[in-house]
Amino acid sequence: MALLITGLVYARRQLDFRGKVLFHPIVLAPLVGSLLGSEGFSTGITIGVIVELIWGSNLVDYNAGFKYGLLVSLLAVTLTILSGNISLVLNLSLVVILSFAFQETFEFLEGTKYFVLVLLMFNLLILFSVPVVQGLLGATPVQFLSELSIIAGLFPVVGLAIFLIQGLKPLFHRDNIWYYSYALATIITSILVYNNYYWGLLLFPIVWYGLYYLWNRTNILELKDYFRFALIGLVVLTTPLILNFNSLYSTSNLQHILWAEALLAVFAVLRLFKLTGIEGYFILALVGIVGARLGIFI
After folding, report:
1. d(CA 80, CA 201)
2. Are 84 and 40 in contact (CB under 8 A)?
3. Where are the alpha helices (DSSP H) in 35-68?
4. 296 and which of 16, 21, 25, 291 could share a cystine (Cβ 3.0–4.6 Å)?
């Protein structure tokens, strides 16, 4: 698995922007997970969507921040299944922290012939640590693991807020049409696969390529704004459908919608103040755990 993950991450770096479309967490995490069984596929769907929404933008136009979203998704799926599929959130969090440390430590080697070897060693280290992770899971209080499972369905809101602000206040200027096509494809695919329409995975490259080449063939400048407005509307409309949580204060569909939109608004405001994906991820984890302790989320 370490060789496969290393090969996929390295192969993505060798492709042009068109080829990289298929090398995204939302596509590859379920496929790699399926090699580990049916649980691997479903775990890959969950992790792939979370990672794609939060860090997928950096795979499209990386300027700063966390750029190993694909690596995180593949390692997290594999580690979760190999450690017994006990806590998706804990495994994902560990991989995020270690991958960010890897980025900060070995970024200077990127572009050299040594980088792929260092990447392989890192992947081997993570996967050989399965007994350590199992020991950590065994030592973690059951209540805490239960709280983590309760809040797992909240994490997509961090990525949805990122997309919302990108629509309201664009940060990418190199090729907005390419980015908006990606964002719309991600939202559409996420809502489908999160509701067990797994054929939605096929739509990810189709919608992305299709929207971009629609604009490329017509060259209608107004489409850029239409795509942006469509992204804003789609995020707002689909947030209640993507977020999965139970609360004592959300006992009807209307209350669920209001809670989901409130969470989206909070993280959108934080994003305006330059909140990064990693910061948003762990802030959400902290807020969710506190909410579970107080009985807000059940």
Report:
1. 21
2. no
3. 38-60
4. 291
**pLDDT given for residue 209 in this prediction:** 92
Contact predicate 96/72, CB 8 Å: yes
What digits encode the pLDDT tens for the residues 17-36? 788 899 999 999 999 999 99
Cα–Cα distance measured from residue 56 to residue 25, given in angstroms and rounded to the nearest whole number: 7
Q: At what angle do helices 2-14 and 25-34 cross, to 10 degrees?
A: 150
Q: CA angle at residue 170 from 234 to 174, to 5 degrees?
A: 115
State the pLDDT at residue 174.
52
Q: 297 - beta bridge partners?
A: 247
Rounded Cα–Cα distance for residues 161 and 271 (Å): 7
Residues 6+ away with beta carbon under 8 Å from 34: 40, 41, 44
What SS3 class is residue 247?
A: strand
Side chain identity at residue 89, one-letter code: V
Q: For residues 43 and 84, what is the distance between their CA atoms, to the nearest angstrom?
A: 12
44, 29 in Cβ contact below 8 A? yes
CA distances from 102 to 95, 105, 151, 170, 252 (A): 10, 5, 27, 29, 44
Taking the C-alpha atoms of residue 284 and residue 281, their distance in angstroms, rounded to an integer, is 5
pLDDT of residue 13: 85
Please give the structure tokens belonging to residue 146. 């239960």
Count of helices and strands (H, E) across the chain: 14, 0
Helix (H/G/I), strand (E/B), else coil: 238: helix
- Mean pLDDT, the chain, integer: 90
Token pair, residue 269, equals 């405001």
Alpha-carbon gap, residue 29 to 187, rounded angstroms = 16
Helix, strand, coil share (%) of the chain residues, nearest 5: 80, 0, 20
Give the residue ranges of DSSP H helices in 128-198.
130-139, 142-151, 156-168, 176-194
Sequence-distant (6+) residues with CB within 8 A of 110 are none
Helices (H), the chain: 2-14, 25-34, 38-60, 69-82, 88-106, 115-127, 130-139, 142-151, 156-168, 176-194, 200-218, 222-242, 253-272, 277-293
